[in-house]
Input
Amino acid sequence: MITAIAAVSARFAAWLPGGSTKAGPSLPQFLKFSPSPSPPPLSRGRCGEALAQRVGSGTLNDVLVQRIGDKSVADAVINILEMASRASLRREILQTDFLTPPVLKESISALEKLTDVKAVAHGGYPQAERCRISIGNTEIFTTEPDVVAALSISGNFEFELCSHGDFLGSIIGTGIVREKVGDILLQGKRGAQVVVVPELTEFLISALNKVGNVPVSCQQIPLFALEYEPPRTKSSTTVEASLRVDAIASAGFNISRSKLVSLISNGDVRLNWSPVMKNGTILRTGDIVSVSGKGRLKVKLIPSCYKLFQN
Output
């Protein structure tokens, strides 16, 4: 009798993380995108003969996003291409909200194919994951705009360390939407730094006064004061009985399965930048798993290993 027993080897690379207070105005009302002064160019896009037409054509937009498998990402990119059409025709600069990494990547890729549009991403620091894009006619990009701002959230977190989810929840709890908030950089016992749209700085300084059970104060800081570590990488191989996210991430981040399950319950584990809802979610090649305060890992290769026994 021959019995086949399958195991799975997952090879992955893990990234390791390395003003004065005053009453502000009431919460402002925001449009989806708002114009601002001109930023410098990121790159001049090129357009093949088949795409050599002005932006804004529904057919052209469909061509630019047809290879995107995720419909929600494709729809977001189409909205940004339509905004690029308005910016180009009106000869003005428009900004998106903060975008998730998949939308950011696909949007930049699509915009670079257009001859009359330039785009530049702003996240506050070089390794930022969530960024805004400034988009406009190629002839009017001349100066650097102020499209992102940074805040320091300070408090005594020595006896109650708060997670990324705690800080984000408190910020969202003031009444603003997620799309107005960029990256959150944890600082352990000191608190955190957060990147936001400039229009929200005074409001958050006034409205954000507690994270978890810890009283906090906020003040605006220059972007160069953001504390971040350039990513360090390592490659590892693990053999697991399945490709469940709790199994692979536990091995990748060298933390216990029970601890990882707790992090998932707290909303601190994300798969391709979306919160993991089930411990048994199955990973695929190319998936990126992020754990707040730990870094992220990317599944690089999943070969199947078979071992045969004969009685």
Q: What stands out?
A: The chain has three domains: 2-16+231-310, 37-140, 149-225. The chain has seven helices and 17 strands. The domain at 149-225 is CATH 3.30.70.330 (Alpha-Beta Plaits). The two ends are 6 Å apart (CA to CA).
